[in-house]
């Protein structure tokens, strides 16, 4: 880039905060409020849609601009490479698919995607998820003849469902001691993904690294590439999908009109299938429920379980009038785009009908990116939607519930403060 051109551009304004800590404390504090996006909104109002800061031990440029994010997501290999906080890179390792780059990543990504799209896989996984969800939900009410309601914690139950499904698909591990042991190890591992990069004994990162090392030794899995990426593909089983399930239940509990519409649509599908007892619901059946898919889209938009992606610039690059210098990290903020009034009317309102209106086309646009975008678009996005659709179908057609008051916590990952306790009874009761 010529000096004259560089002079016309500007490095984004901002504040790097304190040494080492940067603005991490403010970032974390906002994660414990009802509006975690306020960290981004405050700096956006001061410095513009693209600004610089320092969080989790990393000086970064943050983009809250959908057009800038699109460029970051699409420029891969020769311009941007993955760059995540030190806690994530140390835990996932150098062979992680998150850190792969170039043709090798493209090949691995394509292999995973093609496997998930095969008709045989779709048929098998639909049947397996269907069975697993029904059995899990049946355990919510161990004595259906009782007239009182059963208390369950949705967050815990959703994690059991999705973890069991993914571990069976990826590792052929059935329910039992091995699954329980794996779940305990993985719980410790996942806690260290987002934390300050300090490895002293007693810190979260130290404990998670130690747990990860012990788990691999116990299982004698010496192939870093295989173990690392199996673990990485298991992360949705612990975080993304079950939290989407949990938050869908919360949003439906808070919006009875939406719940009624969702129940009517799924009751109609259930009625159609009951007329032919030999026919089970298929992948296409679940994915073709329009309002159910709208509820899923709206849940993903508001939940922001994946709030952004990290990239590092391999060279100076101009994007929308901003100069991103070589070796600087960029955080493409999804939550800022999903919660911006310029993109969604009344963005804090849970409104599945918005997807039938002017925003309908945004399911595949750069202002709706719950699964990322570009060459690194999550290959399991349809599988995630399928799991959510199956869960919602059986939940709303067989059960009624009353949710207790609970709050969403957004750091270190999205969670319910009380794991969303609900009192459940069967519809037949």
TrEMBL record:
Domain of life of the native organism: Eukaryota
Q: One matching Pfam family, short form?
A: p450
Q: Which amino acids does the record list as binding heme?
A: 378
GO molecular function terms here?
heme binding; iron ion binding; oxidoreductase activity, acting on paired donors, with incorporation or reduction of molecular oxygen, NAD(P)H as one donor, and incorporation of one atom of oxygen
Subcellular compartments: Membrane
Chief site of localization: membrane
The species is Ficus carica
Record's keyword annotation contains Metal-binding: yes
Tell me the PROSITE patterns matching this sequence: CYTOCHROME_P450
Q: Which prosthetic group or cofactor does it need? A: heme
> How does the record say this protein sits in the membrane?
Single-pass membrane protein
Q: Which keywords describe this protein according to UniProt? A: Heme, Iron, Membrane, Metal-binding, Monooxygenase, Oxidoreductase, Transmembrane, Transmembrane helix
Task: Give the protein's recorded name.
Answer: Cytochrome P450
Similarity remark? Belongs to the cytochrome P450 family.
Alphabetical GO CC annotations of the entry are:
membrane
Record PANTHER family: 3-EPI-6-DEOXOCATHASTERONE 23-MONOOXYGENASE CYP90C1, CYTOCHROME P450 26
- Lyase among the record's keywords? no
Enumerate the Gene Ontology biological process terms. Answer: brassinosteroid biosynthetic process; brassinosteroid homeostasis; sterol metabolic process
Q: Which InterPro entries does this entry report, sorted A to Z?
A: Cyt_P450, Cyt_P450_CS, Cyt_P450_E_grp-IV, Cyt_P450_sf
């Amino acid at each position: 880039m010529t000096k004259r051109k560089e002079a016309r551009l500007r490095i984004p304004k901002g504040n790097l905060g304190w040494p080492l800590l940067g603005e991490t404390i403010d970032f974390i504090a906002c994660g414990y409020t009802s509006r975690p996006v306020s960290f981004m909104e405050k700096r956006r109002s001061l410095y513009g849609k693209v600004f610089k800061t320092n969080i989790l031990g990393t000086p970064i440029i943050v983009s809250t601009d959908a057009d800038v994010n699109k460029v970051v997501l699409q420029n891969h290999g020769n311009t941007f490479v993955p760059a995540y906080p030190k806690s994530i890179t140390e835990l996932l390792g150098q062979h992680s698919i998150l850190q792969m780059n170039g043709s090798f990543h493209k090949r691995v990504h394509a292999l995973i995607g093609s496997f998930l799209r095969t008709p045989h896989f779709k048929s098998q996984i639909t049947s397996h998820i269907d069975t697993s969800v029904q059995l899990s939900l049946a355990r919510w009410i161990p004595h259906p003849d009782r007239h009182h309601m059963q208390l369950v914690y949705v967050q815990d139950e959703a994690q059991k469902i999705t973890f069991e499904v993914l571990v069976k698909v990826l590792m052929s591990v059935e329910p039992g001691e091995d699954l329980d042991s794996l779940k305990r190890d993985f719980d410790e591992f996942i806690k260290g993904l987002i934390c300050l990069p300090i490895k002293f004994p007693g810190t979260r990162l130290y404990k998670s690294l130690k747990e990860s090392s012990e788990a691999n030794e116990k299982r004698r899995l010496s192939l870093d590439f295989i173990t690392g990426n199996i673990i990485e593909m298991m992360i949705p089983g612990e975080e993304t999908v079950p939290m989407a399930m949990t938050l869908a239940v919360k949003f439906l509990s808070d919006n009875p009109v939406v719940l009624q519409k969702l129940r009517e649509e799924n009751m109609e599908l259930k009625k159609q299938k009951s007329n032919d007892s030999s026919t089970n619901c298929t992948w296409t059946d679940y994915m073709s429920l329009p309002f159910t898919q709208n509820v899923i889209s709206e849940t993903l938009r508001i939940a922001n379980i994946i709030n952004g992606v990290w990239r590092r610039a391999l060279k100076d690059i101009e994007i929308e009038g901003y100069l991103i210098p070589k070796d600087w990290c960029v955080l493409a903020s999804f939550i800022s785009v999903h919660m911006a009034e310029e993109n969604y009317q009344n963005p804090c309102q849970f409104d599945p009908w918005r997807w039938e209106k002017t925003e309908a086309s945004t399911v595949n646009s750069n202002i709706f990116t719950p699964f990322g975008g570009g060459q690194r678009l999550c290959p399991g996005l349809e599988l995630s939607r399928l799991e959510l659709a199956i869960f919602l179908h059986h939940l709303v057609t067989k059960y009624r519930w009353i949710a207790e008051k609970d709050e969403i916590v957004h750091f270190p990952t999205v969670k319910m403060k009380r794991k969303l306790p609900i009192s459940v009874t069967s519809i037949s009761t």
